[in-house]
Amino acid sequence: MSESRGLSSEIETLARQDKVCERLMTVPGIGPIISSAIMNVTPHVTQNQAVSKTGKTRQSAIDERTTRHQGYGMSQTRRAMIECIFGWGKQHGTMRKTKHRGIGRVAADFLLNLIACNLIRIPKLLAA
Question: CA-CA distance, 58 to 78, in Å (whole number)?
């Protein structure tokens, strides 16, 4: 349930950044998800065709009908960037197991983790 809320908020963020999606959302009854679907945004699910321990190639539920679209590649690129930040927060920050109670305190701790991650990224971004 929380994963679908996260995906919905991410789709909404992407739709708000796109001028065409923003214009489509002015039509009554068309929200971020519908406008993104009209603009050919594909699901944010990774195709899994890795080799298992037994040596068999896994059969992914995501087939060529999804992966052939340009939006799928864009989605995977953004996914990698987002998961990198969450991975850093869990491995180096305090996001693995929160020590706070209440939405406000947990949100503040999450924000501090994001700030710390960005502070670490700044030298790498300046060097590039």
Answer: 24
| Tally of residues, the chain | 128
Strand partners, 57: 51
Q: What is the arithmetic mean of pLDDT over 92-118? A: 89
d(CA 21, CA 63): 26
Phi and psi, residue 34, nearest 5°: -65, -45
The residue extents of the domains of the chain are 8-41, 92-128
What span, in angstroms and rounded, lies between the C-alpha atoms of 111 and 91?
A: 16
Question: How far from chain centre, in Å, is Cα 1?
Answer: 15
The answer to whether the beta carbons of residues 85 and 117 sit under 8 Å apart is yes
- The pTM of this model reads 0.48
